[in-house]
Amino acid sequence: MPISDAARTLRPRRSNLAVPGSSTKMITKAKGLPADQVFLDIEDAVAPLAKPEARRNIVAALTEGGWGEKVRTVRVNDWTTQWTYTDVVEVVSGAGADLDCIMLPKVQSADQVVALDLLLTQIEKSEGLEVGRIGIEAQIENARGLIAVDAIAAASPRVETIIFGPADFMASINMKSLVVGEQPPGYDVGDAYHYILMRILMAARANDQQAIDGPYLQIRDVEGFTRVARRSAALGLDGKWVLHPGQIDAANEVFSPRQEDYDHAENILDAYEWYTSEAGGKRGAAMLGDEMIDEASRKMALVIAGKGRAAGMQRSDRWTPPQD
Ligand code: GLV
Ligand code: MG
């Protein structure tokens, strides 16, 4: 049985820590860090000669455990290389039961997602694993990928997230950005990344998936990281990569609702449920304090409550029905 869509979309992914599979030291350290998700890399952070060793390190680290509640992902090499199938076969045969998702970088077409889905299904069957449990995270890193993003998101029920890969993307479209995540120098375009992020977000949302922002390369500039992360969070993205432990707290904070917004969302859900019930007068629109709430308010509240719950937030204020 594939895992339910709700379970997939509710995985918290505010911070996704990048860890090179070639470094056992960094892998061990990552286990104890408070990131929601970790991805063990066999792609661009690992030199070609170190890839076989990275695969072995990753299998060992996953089967050994100690990852807590983190979403455990492995980034394989993209389908234009000679490495992809070996990456997937070795990692999933060796550690498929201890792995949540495979991240596929530089996705350019729906076919590439389908190819990974088929390969995963075969390995799951031959290893006696639950078929369909391992998810796919699709990284959009070039113009072709962005043009095809709607089809990519819809290509397999395994797709859980669509991720923006700004470094490769900027290179692919010749954008003159020196600091990834910032505006190209000399431009006052408001937000050079708005179009790309919104395309990714629409494709993800149309398929009930999460949209994730990629890395901010200036790892010591936490202020810059926070500024860029806030922009993505304001648009509606669910999380961002972190390349350094120093970026984790900022990501977790930026992508969590504020306590008052979380409380308010939960209160809207409770109040609306009551007002629409027999006891509450079967009303489709009602007042919560000075605010008019209706079905659309409930939908907006569900988003914030879902993010808060996924982040483990607790209510600090609780609405109760009026007494008469
Ligand atoms: C990440 O992979 C990027 O290219 O930004
Ligand atoms: Mg990349």
Descriptive notes:
44% of the residues are buried. It contains 13 helices and 10 strands. The radius of gyration is 21 Å and the shape is globular. The chain is of the alpha/beta class and 324 residues long. The mean pLDDT is 92. It is 44% helix and 14% strand. The protein has an 8-stranded parallel beta barrel with strand order 1-2-3-4-5-6-7-8, surrounded by 6 helices. It folds into 2 domains: 5-254, Alpha-Beta Barrel (TIM Barrel); 259-310. Magnesium ion binds at residues 44, 105, 141, 165, 167-168. Magnesium ion (MG) is lined by residues 44, 105, 141, 165, 167-168.
Helix/strand/pairing category: alpha/beta
Helix content: 40-55%
| Tally of DSSP β-strands | 10
CATH topology of the largest domain: TIM Barrel
The CATH class label of the largest domain is Alpha Beta
Number of domains: 2
The largest sheet has its strands arranged as: 1-2-3-4-5-6-7-8
Low-confidence stretches: none
How far apart the termini lie comes to 49 Å
Bound molecules: glyoxylic acid, magnesium ion
Sum up the overall morphology in one term: globular
The mean pLDDT is 92
Q: What's the helix-strand series?
A: HEHEHEHEHEHHEHHEHEHHEEH
The proportion of strand residues reads 5-15%
Radius of gyration: 21 Å
**CATH architecture tag of the largest domain:** Alpha-Beta Barrel
Per CATH, the superfamily of the largest domain is Phosphoenolpyruvate-binding domains
Number of helices: 13
Oligomer: single chain
